Amino acid sequence: MVKTNTNKDLLKEKGFLSQRQEDFFSMRLHAAGGNLTSDYLRAVADAADRYGKGYVHVTSRQGIEIPFVHLDNTEAARNDMDSKDIGPGASGKKIRAVVACQGDRVCKRGLIDCQGICEEIDELYFAEPVPYKFKIAVTGCPASCLKVQENDFGIMGFCEPFFIEENCVMCRACEKACGSSAITIENGILYLNMNKCVSCGSCISACRKDAMQKQVQGFTIFVGGKVGKKPRMGDMLLRTENKDYVFDILEKTLEFYREDALEGERLGDVIDRCGIDKFGEKVK
Length: 284
Known about the structure:
CATH topology of the largest domain: Sulfite Reductase Hemoprotein, domain 1
Order of helices and strands: HEEHEEHEHEEHEEHEEHHH
CATH architecture of the largest domain: 2-Layer Sandwich
Strand content: 15-25%
Mean pLDDT: 95
Strand order of the largest sheet: 5-6-7-10-11
Number of strands: 11
Number of domains: 2
Helix content: 25-40%
Largest sheet: 5 strands, mixed
Low-confidence stretches: 1-5
Shape: globular
CATH class of the largest domain: Alpha Beta
Radius of gyration: 23 Å
Number of helices: 9
């Protein structure tokens, strides 16, 4: 078979990443939030058998790659995936696929609709150009299973409790549920230390007498996180109850990144160079 396309940049745009084996590529496929339908999985399995070595690689960002696609088969493999409405994954200087936990659709600890937010962000921003790369994560609660603090833009659900003393029967259910020692009961008095509280909402779920109630629930936004050779934990920017405000902050964050980034800088690098105060002024 004649090799029709040896332009690796063009192949990368179509989701093909070079392997160490000459003329072989890993075909990266678009997937958002780790939710893959059975039809998607069947199509990927068939493609892995047909064009690869019969297996797939699940990436650290909940994505799918089919390794060992030969150069001669890249066009056929891409056409096959397009016919199944499975687009290429993003790489290079683009906004990557959003990662998300199952949130309140499935997880009993989920405080926000992570999958719904993920779908909206993916529809708006997936594979859009940026100065270097931009990673987004959505997690349902402060357990942060999706490690939002390690992403350029992270969204975390939170729920702050409010104690109603007259409803309390001192059963200690909330104290046992609290994993951060924010609740203590001494001499028949309950103490709620909001300096220790991580706003996970576990005490509210545990209480059967409505003594622990929701005071405010919403979204915590982290910015500037990354891993790699020079890791950086994201800064907690703000909390809000308004989902629309989250999307407004995301849009303004991307504007800031595109306007102020130097070559090869991630968002956290720009924040470190320009200052978190300047960043906050621009995006809030």
